[in-house]
Amino acid sequence: MRTYRYFLLLFWVGQPYPTFSTPLSKRTSGFPAKKRALELSGNSKNELNRSKRSWMWNQFFLLEEYTGSDYQYVGKLHSDQDRGDGSLKYILSGDGAGDLFIINENTGDIQATKRLDREEKPVYILRAQAINRRTGRPVEPESEFIIKIHDINDNEPIFTKDVYTATVPEMSDVGTFVVQVTATDADDPTYGNSAKVVYSILQGQPYFSVESETGTYQFKTPESSPPGTPIGRIKASDADMGENAEIEYSITEGEGLDMFDVVTDQETQEGVITVKKLLDFEKKKVYTLKVEASNPHVEPRFLYLGPFKDAATVRIMVEDVDEPPVFSKLAYILQIREDAQINTTIGSVTAQDPDAARNPVKYSVDRHTDMDRIFNIDSGNGSIFTSKLLDRETLLWHNITVIATEINNPKQSSRVPLYIKVLDVNDNAPEFAEFYETFVCEKAKADQLIQTLRAIDKDDPYSGHQFSFSLAPEAASGSNFTIQDNKDNTAGILTRKNGYNRHEMSTYLLPVVISDNDYPVQSSTGTVTVRVCACDHHGNMQSCHAEALIHPTGLSTGALVAILLCIVTLLVTVVLFAALRRQRKKEPLIISKEDIRDNIVSYNDEGGGEEDTQAFDIGTLRNPAALEDGKLRRDVAPEALLPARRPPAAPDSTDVRDFLRQRLQEHDRDPTAPPYDSLATYAYEGAGSAAASLSSLESSTTDSDQSYDYLREWGPRFRKLADLYGAADGDRDS
């Protein structure tokens, strides 16, 4: 339900009392040769004393709205050249001269002829001069003076609007801003209290109230507003135009002098109030400012009119917003010993909701900053504890981030860095700073320094490192060297006897024990290698190898060189002989024709297939009658050349066909039968062929009349073929 309420505002102003003042100021100019003065007397009837200066000027004050029957007396002009004989004449010029203001040309008295209104014109500038009545020449330089109209309270305040309309939500908090009202007064604000406006409510109480002095410039801004955020605008009015109407705003005093700022909008000449620093509702909820508006361009001749500025009070209310939790510190630094057990508490962090609701907060660790999950946190109280063992020598500082989140509003969260330093525990033994391998000269003297030892320790004790060096107990009694601890974390190896023999002992292994002085004491044993070397008389190493002893009866160096040359010559001879043997021509593969051993002859070339007729004439197989006399095989050299027997060709020799088919089947069934990489080609012309037979023996006789005994005389390669055909004839005969 909406209810409309009306209230009346009452304004009153103070009635000033009449005041008259004639402040005197002086200006030096004119003629230095003659010292003359024009005196001006005010309406106080008190004449001014003569000054030895050329000119004196004054400022007169008149009350506005004069209601008397006579002219209002302003003042009197007088020159020291006036002897009272009527020879001088006073004249007046400037604003209103001869109309509003008149002067008695004989006496110099100035009077106002009309009622003056300050709101119409507050200041009049006039010029006075004394001239010789007979010659018309001035006897004194012209003098300028000002007549300022004193204000009286003759104007009532006027609102900038006839009716102000505003709305306010029901159940609004007390102090909620409703509307801004503004009234102005045309009277002079610099003189008395005539222009001072006071606001009050006639109707509408107790539901509404009004700021008695300002009429409620009042703004609101949330506490989360960043610096530079505009809050509201204020405006001062100026009747001038152009640059004379430009206004500058500034905050002169108030509780929020350092929290807010005001700038001028050059287009609208309004003052824009902005946030200067971050606000906090929980610390301060309301700020009161005094904002001043002034003219930056004021002509010096109008400075006497009073201050060209005005001020207004501005109230700014800070609104509460839901803020994320706030940690008690900007960063936390904790420490823990590196030998701490798992679940050891390191410390804790604290955060709370800054809002009035004080919502509960839970804690967590940002795992992006603790990938190995070395630490954990209690979500309720913020206690930090370890979840893994620590090692200071591996990582001295752990930098993690803790998150605090509102339980009721998980979107509101904040983070804080947590730096954890791992404190040192003496858990590492000292060791040599480097691998030590040194030498001792064969002619070294006792107590001679041959090496300085240094040690390092991964630990970092609070009081610094303190190492001690000594020989291992098992080597301390019979050692040829001693250890001298220098008490500065270094030690020296000294010889214990005079002279060393590298042929007896070329290398010594010296065990050295290094200990620290921390708690618990840690120690380690390092080995120093000492080699016995031959040195020159300056102690510089020359050789450290144990050479073989040479007896007088042994070979001389020349003999050894001769033996070495002989061995080299023998080796060269053997190499040359082997090279010559490689160049000798190879023997034939088959040396004797009687050699009947199974041999594999490699010709290292590739056959030409069916078109290759160099090894045998395949045409003979296809046409035995085409065999030429004297044409022999070129791949076999028989012992004796026998005339070829030409048996008559059979019309159709089925025996050869059966033989070929049988052998072909045997080859197909036997994958191991030689040759493995040969292609056996068999051809059969069939019935009606001109060959009449597939006999490869170029015989013109029939199979039954053919004799294959001569094949045995061709060598071992044809004996198998002769046996095969001979066996076949025996089978047919049987």
Automatic annotation (TrEMBL):
<keyword id="KW-0472">Membrane</keyword>
<feature type="transmembrane region" description="Helical">
    <location>
        <begin position="559"/>
        <end position="580"/>
    </location>
</feature>
<keyword id="KW-1003">Cell membrane</keyword>
<dbReference type="GO" id="GO:0007156">
    <property type="term" value="P:homophilic cell adhesion via plasma membrane adhesion molecules"/>
</dbReference>
<dbReference type="GO" id="GO:0000902">
    <property type="term" value="P:cell morphogenesis"/>
</dbReference>
<dbReference type="GO" id="GO:0034332">
    <property type="term" value="P:adherens junction organization"/>
</dbReference>
<keyword id="KW-0479">Metal-binding</keyword>
<feature type="domain" description="Cadherin">
    <location>
        <begin position="328"/>
        <end position="432"/>
    </location>
</feature>
<dbReference type="GO" id="GO:0016477">
    <property type="term" value="P:cell migration"/>
</dbReference>
<dbReference type="GO" id="GO:0099560">
    <property type="term" value="P:synaptic membrane adhesion"/>
</dbReference>
<feature type="domain" description="Cadherin">
    <location>
        <begin position="213"/>
        <end position="327"/>
    </location>
</feature>
<dbReference type="GO" id="GO:0016339">
    <property type="term" value="P:calcium-dependent cell-cell adhesion via plasma membrane cell adhesion molecules"/>
</dbReference>
<dbReference type="GO" id="GO:0005912">
    <property type="term" value="C:adherens junction"/>
</dbReference>
<feature type="domain" description="Cadherin">
    <location>
        <begin position="432"/>
        <end position="554"/>
    </location>
</feature>
<keyword id="KW-0130">Cell adhesion</keyword>
<keyword id="KW-0325">Glycoprotein</keyword>
<dbReference type="Pfam" id="PF01049">
    <property type="entry name" value="CADH_Y-type_LIR"/>
</dbReference>
<keyword id="KW-1133">Transmembrane helix</keyword>
<comment type="function">
    <text>Cadherins are calcium-dependent cell adhesion proteins. They preferentially interact with themselves in a homophilic manner in connecting cells; cadherins may thus contribute to the sorting of heterogeneous cell types.</text>
</comment>
<keyword id="KW-0677">Repeat</keyword>
<keyword id="KW-0732">Signal</keyword>
<dbReference type="InterPro" id="IPR027397">
    <property type="entry name" value="Catenin-bd_sf"/>
</dbReference>
<dbReference type="GO" id="GO:0044331">
    <property type="term" value="P:cell-cell adhesion mediated by cadherin"/>
</dbReference>
<dbReference type="GO" id="GO:0045296">
    <property type="term" value="F:cadherin binding"/>
</dbReference>
<dbReference type="InterPro" id="IPR000233">
    <property type="entry name" value="Cadherin_Y-type_LIR"/>
</dbReference>
<feature type="domain" description="Cadherin">
    <location>
        <begin position="160"/>
        <end position="215"/>
    </location>
</feature>
<dbReference type="GO" id="GO:0016342">
    <property type="term" value="C:catenin complex"/>
</dbReference>
<keyword id="KW-0106">Calcium</keyword>
<protein>
    <recommendedName>
        <fullName>Cadherin-6</fullName>
    </recommendedName>
</protein>
<feature type="domain" description="Cadherin">
    <location>
        <begin position="79"/>
        <end position="159"/>
    </location>
</feature>
<dbReference type="InterPro" id="IPR020894">
    <property type="entry name" value="Cadherin_CS"/>
</dbReference>
<dbReference type="GO" id="GO:0007043">
    <property type="term" value="P:cell-cell junction assembly"/>
</dbReference>
<dbReference type="InterPro" id="IPR039808">
    <property type="entry name" value="Cadherin"/>
</dbReference>
<dbReference type="GO" id="GO:0008013">
    <property type="term" value="F:beta-catenin binding"/>
</dbReference>
<keyword id="KW-0165">Cleavage on pair of basic residues</keyword>
<keyword id="KW-0812">Transmembrane</keyword>
<dbReference type="Pfam" id="PF00028">
    <property type="entry name" value="Cadherin"/>
</dbReference>
<dbReference type="InterPro" id="IPR002126">
    <property type="entry name" value="Cadherin-like_dom"/>
</dbReference>
<dbReference type="InterPro" id="IPR015919">
    <property type="entry name" value="Cadherin-like_sf"/>
</dbReference>
<dbReference type="GO" id="GO:0005509">
    <property type="term" value="F:calcium ion binding"/>
</dbReference>
